[in-house]
Amino acid sequence: MRILDEDGPDALTFQRLGKELSASATAVYRYFASRDHIMVAVAEELDRISLEGYEPHESWIDSLRSLAIRAWNTALDHPAAAALCMGRVTRGVHELRAVDAVLEAFHRGGWRGRAAVLYYQAFSNFVLAMASNNAWRLVNQRFGAEVNWVQEYQPADPDAYPYAEAAKEHLRSVDMTEVFHRQVDILLAALEAEAQTFPRD
Fold it and tell me: Could you confirm whether domain 44-195 is CATH 1.10.357.10?
């Protein structure tokens, strides 16, 4: 994780890992068969960090909100790791904890069986996609071409795009964490409204 935090995605190599561990690259292969195995281990560590100290809230909605924000904040703290690995299937204990936590919240919301799994996937894929996409943006700001990740438009004929022209300053400077919080609000409001239609025991 430290290698990724300090030097970005391209720095994660067997040679660099061996150097950090005062071992040869060949020795690292005894623990990781491939770079993909290293990335799976990093993904599992991201899950561990995200869930550290997590306890279900009294409200299932607040539980989902907390899980979403935790994943987002972890990606903010470790953008290179999140850009490369967030969303990878690890089959590890921390990933299983995350799966169980989301399913537990949906169960309390009233979802069961296949429907619960469908909504779990929709929620988790949304959160991980948004967090990892923003992580790539942060990585490019530090190690790559920031301009490719900023919505800054200078059309030859601004009058042809009046709404984009009127919003150009906001598009250029929008806070992506604020955007994510708004997205989560919209998603959770829709889930809460649907849950209100379920029969209750």
Answer: yes
